[in-house]
Design goal:
Oligomer: heterotrimer
CATH class of the largest domain in chain B: Mainly Alpha
Helix content of chain B: over 70%
Chains: A mainly alpha (105), B mainly alpha (166), C mainly alpha (690)
Order of helices and strands of chain B: HHHHHH
Shape of chain B: globular
Radius of gyration of chain B: 20 Å
Helix content of chain C: over 70%
Distance between the termini of chain B: 58 Å
Number of helices of chain C: 27
Chain lengths: 105, 166, 690
């Protein structure tokens, strides 16, 4: 089934991505949405490293750099996002996403 | 594809599943940590040592803690009465499944063209440092600015409420 | 009689002739001014009317004097002033006036008698509230009549003719609130209209045949030998020449205006108008207009007269005239209204005039016209005076014995009555009627008219005696007290009576001035005229007839004064004859049953067509249009508006629907994002395969 090692890594990454997406889409809690996003980012990083390892010119370190920067940015984004969730919690006293529809059209 | 790969993959994927399925949020956060660890091991297996360790340092050491803090600060640990899943969770699941299907389809179709086993690259920290300061200096600086902004922003966002409620 | 001087060629119009147009124009102008006055300006309106007619009289006298001086110098004056009024295509419409002996005598008569009647009216209509309107119409009538007299263009004559008819209608129906007066005016107008239709046909034919509207136009006029010769050449149906046929048509018009036999029915009813109107219009002038017309177109009627014979037109004229004379005299015997007797007498005398024209020519008929104008106007005005004095009573059976109460009226009335009867020697009527009788006696075609006219003279004397004895003799049967009329009314009576006598002078055979004047001959004075063969015998015959009539009338009626409800003496003697006479030979009833009934039926048919057929068309068109309008409204409201409204609704609804997508829930957005990514990726992979 898995033709190459790369395929395996890619499938794993895809799986984690899908799981992370499912979590972001189905759970009520806002924090879990952020967790899902983190999982998705991790899956993307895995993808990157896998391609770096098995792609042409690994000596260029392109994939690795990309992944490093991705990690940094993801951390920053997680911080800000969680700060926002806390801030919103203070406002509406809940983290239930279904109840947060102030921007209804 | 050795057994090791499958074990580590199982760890990562299992951790991810647990994250999404568990009801108690703190349990979710812990499972997330496990998942992060699994991914870090996968990085190590892929000969990207630096990234693997960076992953542990940043994700497990910072992001996971952050998540736990957020959970505790928002009293999200308490179980809501109506259940943890949204009313229309089927739709989300379906969409996620569709995404996985598309990705898997792409990967499997591209199977024949994917490169095979190659020699492991020897990457030193020196080389990474050189690259960061050399070729990738601009993204580095931008990320630095971004991190600063994020730090300040998070503080402000989280702090304002405090100031107001005082 | 000496043969006349030859006509001089038409001279250039003298000064008088140039200004002759003032004669009709000034009264018409006065009429216009009076029309603009406010109602109760009595003195001003009658003053204007009398002044204008007085002015016309002066001009007429000047013209008359001019013609007489010309005649006495041996010229036969005929001066014309023609002008072209408008241009119709290439044909000019010509109008003009003429001054010749015929016009001159008529002018003087009309203006003089008219002036006297105007003065009389100021007294008669004193208490009438429509005084001003009366004088306005009277002036207009005078102007129109004078226009008829001097017209040289047959079109101008017709225009003034119609105007005369109109003013006659206005004056007969002067008291229009009275339904019988309104009906009488309508009857007069319509009956004369019948004649006018034929007249117009004659005018058109004459113009078409001769190419000119003018009577006299330096040789090219329609009454001049050139044109007449042309008319004689053409033959219409029934062996008539064009001249004869046109002459008959014109005579039909004259018959309507002058009340000849079939068209006489309007004259007696016209007595509904005020008495001055009856005197002026229906005695002296308007009815004489028909006779004048025949005299004016006499050359046409006499064209082609063989020596010792006569033309078809003149024959018809004579027979109609003679029949009218006898018919009207018969009916007059049985009437009881003082004015109606005089009306029928007028019809009868008009018959005499027409017969005179037919048998004897222009001079004979015209002389009787002139004398009749004077004594008939006198009689009518005298009747008006009697009515005034008897407190508006008009039935002679309710009068009587007025000889003593109204002496001036009686004296003048008696003179007029004797003149009308033709009392021998001293009265103008005798000489004028004798002239007609003499000409009739020598008529080549038949002797019957002569006998009819003699019988008519007998009847005239009879019925006038009857009237006079009822009114002036016997005992007073009326109400109240009779009194004489004021001076302003009796003065004209006296003047007219004077002329009724003295006009005799110009017509006797001893000095046939009138005849000579009209014919352009010299007029020697001499008793030789009396030596005409048969003349003395005729004079004796007519005298006997008149005296017999007078005596017979006096014998039956005399100084007896039967009460109003008692039957007339003659009625007792021959009741059926009396009934027929009294009911005017049932001619009115005949017309009513035939002509009037036909018109009523025709009016009904026309009404049915209009109401049902045209009305239906109109209403169906209306129906169509309302339906169409409703359809339009329906379409507009439902299709256009509805469509538009629906469209807007749809947009709003779909907008609402679309707005529901914005749930405000982040997870929903995320899902959509992911879905979009899936789709996009799938598409990309699919398209990138191979």
């Amino acid at each position: 089934m898995i033709a190459t090692p790369l395929t395996g890594y890619l499938l794993v990454a895809a799986l984690i991505f899908a799981i992370g997406l499912a979590g972001a889409l189905t759970r009520r809690n806002a924090i879990l949405v952020l967790i899902g996003i983190e999982l998705m980012l991790n899956a993307a990083n895995l993808n990157l490293i896998a391609f770096w390892r098995y792609g042409p010119h690994p000596e260029m370190l392109t994939g690795m750099m990309f992944a490093i920067f991705s990690i940094a940015v993801a951390a920053a984004e997680a911080a800000v996002g969680l700060g926002l969730v806390i801030s919103i919690y203070r406002h509406v006293k809940t983290t239930d996403l279904d109840q947060m529809n102030e921007m209804k059209g | 594809m050795g057994v090791v790969f499958y074990l580590i993959s199982a760890l990562a994927v299992g951790g991810a599943l647990a994250t999404v399925l568990l009801k108690n949020l703190v349990h979710c956060a812990l499972a997330l940590t496990v998942s992060f660890l699994g991914i870090a091991f996968l990085f190590l297996r892929l000969d990207a040592e630096f990234v693997g360790f960076a992953q542990i340092l940043v994700y497990v050491g910072a992001v996971a803690i952050l998540v736990v803090f957020a959970i505790l600060l928002t009293r999200a640990a308490e179980l809501p009465k109506v259940g943890v899943f949204s009313k229309t969770w089927i739709v989300g699941l379906a969409i996620a499944a569709a995404v996985f299907a598309v990705l898997a389809w792409a990967v499997l179709r591209a199977g024949p063209w994917l490169p095979n086993e190659t020699a492991a690259p020897q990457v030193t920290v020196n080389q990474i440092g050189q690259a960061l300061m050399g070729r990738y200096v601009l993204p580095l600086e931008i990320v630095a600015a971004l991190l600063t902004a994020a730090l300040l922003g998070a503080v402000i966002v989280a702090m304002h409420e405090k100031v107001r409620t005082k | 009689m000496q043969e006349g001087l030859a006509f001089t060629p038409q001279v250039a119009a003298s000064g008088v002739a140039q200004w002759l147009w003032l004669v009709p124009a000034v009264p018409m102008l006065a009429s216009g001014v009076i029309a603009l006055l406010k109602q109760p300006m009595k003195k001003l309106s009658s003053g204007l009317a009398i002044a204008s007619l007085g002015f016309s009289l002066l001009v007429a006298l000047a013209a008359f004097g001019h013609v007489v001086s010309g005649w006495s110098n041996g010229y036969a004056v005929r001066e014309v002033v023609n002008f072209s009024w408008i241009q119709v295509g290439t044909t000019p419409v010509e109008l003009g006036w003429v001054l010749d002996p015929l016009a001159a005598v008529m002018l003087v008569m009309v203006t003089f008698v008219g002036l006297l009647i105007f003065i009389y009216s100021t007294g008669y209509m004193e208490h009438d509230e429509n005084y001003t309107r009366f004088f306005c119409f009277l002036s207009l009538f005078a102007g129109a009549m004078l226009g008829v007299v001097i017209a040289n263009s047959i079109l101008l004559l017709f225009m003034c003719w119609e105007l005369v008819g109109l003013t006659s209608y206005l004056l007969i129906g002067f008291w229009y609130q009275n339904p019988s007066a309104a009906a009488a005016a309508k009857k007069a107008f319509l009956t004369t209209r019948v004649g006018d239709v034929f007249f117009l046909l004659g005018i058109v034919w004459l113009f078409a045949q001769t190419g000119t509207l003018l009577f006299y136009d330096h040789g090219a006029g329609s009454m001049e030998p050139l044109a007449l010769g042309g008319l004689l050449v053409h033959h219409s149906a029934w062996g008539l020449t064009a001249a004869g046929a046109i002459g008959l048509l014109i005579f039909a018009g004259a018959a309507g205006k002058s009340g000849q036999l079939p068209l006489h029915v309007w004259l007696p009813d016209a007595m509904e108008g005020p008495t001055p109107v009856s005197a002026l219009i229906h005695a002296a002038t308007m009815v004489a207009a028909g006779v004048y017309l025949v005299a004016r177109v006499y050359p046409l009627m006499a064209a082609g007269m063989p020596a010792g014979g006569t033309t078809t037109s003149l024959t018809v004229v004579t027979w109609v005239g003679a029949s009218t004379a006898v018919f009207a005299a018969l009916v007059a015997v049985a009437q009881n209204d003082i004015k109606r007797i005089l009306a029928y007498s007028t019809v009868s005398q008009l018959g005499y005039m027409m017969a005179g024209l037919g048998v004897g020519g222009v001079a004979v008929g015209m002389f009787h016209l002139i004398t009749h104008a004077f004594f008939k106007a006198l009689l009518f005005m005298g009747a008006g005076s009697v009515i005034h004095g008897a407190h508006e009573e008009q039935d002679i059976r309710k009068m009587g014995g007025l000889r003593g109460a109204m002496p001036v009226t009686f004296a003048t009335y008696a003179i007029g009555m004797l003149a009308l009867c033709g009392f021998p020697l001293f009265f103008s009527g005798f000489w004028s009627k004798d002239g007609i009788l003499e000409a009739a006696q020598h008529w080549s075609v038949a002797k019957a008219p002569f006998y009819m006219l003699v019988f008519g003279a007998l009847l005239t004397a009879f019925y006038m005696t009857r009237q006079v004895s009822y009114v002036f003799f016997g005992t007073w049967r009326g109400h109240g007290h009779a009194h004489e009329s004021p001076r302003v009314m009796t003065m004209p009576l006296a003047i007219l009576a004077f002329f009724a006598v003295t006009l005799a002078v110009i017509g006797t055979p001893a000095w046939p001035w009138f005849k000579a004047f009209l014919n352009g001959n010299a007029a020697p004075f001499g008793w030789a005229g009396f030596s005409e063969p048969g003349l003395m015998a005729l004079m004796v015959t007519s005298s006997v007839v008149v005296l017999a009539g007078l005596g017979f009338g006096w014998w039956i009626y005399g100084a007896k004064s039967p009460a109003a409800d008692e039957p007339d003496a003659l009625a007792r003697a021959m009741p059926p004859v009396w009934a027929v006479l009294r009911d005017k030979f049932y001619i009115d009833e005949l017309y009513g049953a035939t002509v009037i009934a036909f018109y009523g039926w025709w009016a009904k048919v026309a009404d049915w067509i209009d109401r049902d057929i045209w009305g239906d068309m109109v209403s169906s068109t209306t129906f169509l249009f309302t339906r169409w309008a409703r359809l339009n409204r329906f379409l507009d409201a439902n299709v256009v508006d509805g469509g538009f409204d629906k469209g807007c609704e749809e947009i709003a609804t779909s907008g609402g629907l679309l707005a529901r997508v914005q749930t405000g829930r982040g997870q929903m957005y995320l899902r959509l994002l992911a879905l979009a990514v899936v789709l996009l990726a799938a598409f990309l992979i699919w398209s990138g395969r191979g």
